[in-house]
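For reproducibility, we list the full input for the L-MYO-inositol-1-phosphate complex.
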Amino acid sequence: MAETTDPHEILNDPVRLIELREIAKRVAREAGELIVTDRPTALGVADTKSSETDVVTVMDQRSEQLLRERLAELRPHDGLLGEEGASRPSESGLTWIVDPIDGTVNYLYEHPFYAVSVAVVIGDASGEDGWDTVAAAVYAPAMDEMFSAALGQGATLEADGVTTDLHVNDPHELSLALIGTGFGYAAQKRAVQAAIVAELLPKARDIRRGGSAALDLCFVAGGRLDAYYESGINAWDRAAGQLIAAEAGAIVSGEIGEKPGKNLTIAAAPKVYAELASCVGAKTR
Ligand code: LIP
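The corresponding predicted structure, in tokenized form, follows.
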């Protein structure tokens, strides 16, 4: 695939966007299959990060190694940013942002809600929001579900040999909305988040805490959640899911009027977005 000098030209090139989406799906599926087939019988914790509960397994590391190697083969001039440390500067203006296992604690506990998240973005991927996703795939191997999207081309779910276009639900008010959220690994942050969810709970239909931001965002896209919000997630947790949710009709932001970021990520069906954002915004700072 010939590379142009201006990466922004890809925004007007549906064929190239489709090619990037297919690469994202291919490598996400390969990594997803690896973490299932090669899972050791006695999987342990290889390392911890921000706290004793923020764990890394050998399969997080092997999955990211596969993603790094395959993307270097398929897209040698693109950059790379991975949760477990993979990093490569971009020559093309495009960067792949990957989470080798999003929902690592679920994976460790053999809870099926985990995924490989692969996004390709345009812009400065070194920061929280100086980039925009142009193609994405989130593959949940335990459920054999492939969520994907390309900018301006909608979002789909591939499962059981069937491809379905994804569209958000249409709840008319927050009290009828099923809302996903998540919590950080630090006790002090969790106390703040608990206070916010305690205020929200009586105002919503119900709350779900799945454990994978990437899948929570895809579940909003597919109408399995009406909205999702979380404070403290990283670029690799959301880079793919935020495009998939937006392409399915969700309003995706940080605080109202801001891009999603470390402080806050919201993806919501349009009619409940403003009410949810007013409940969870600002207080998460
Ligand atoms: C996870 C996020 C999730 C959050 C978890 C964890 P990880 O990412 O996807 O939304 O609530 O605490 O951070 O650590 O499994 O890649």
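The radius of gyration is 18 Å. The pocket of L-MYO-inositol-1-phosphate is lined by residues 83, 99, 102-104, 182-183, 211-213, 230, 233, 237 (CB under 6 Å). Both points were considered when choosing residues for closer inspection.
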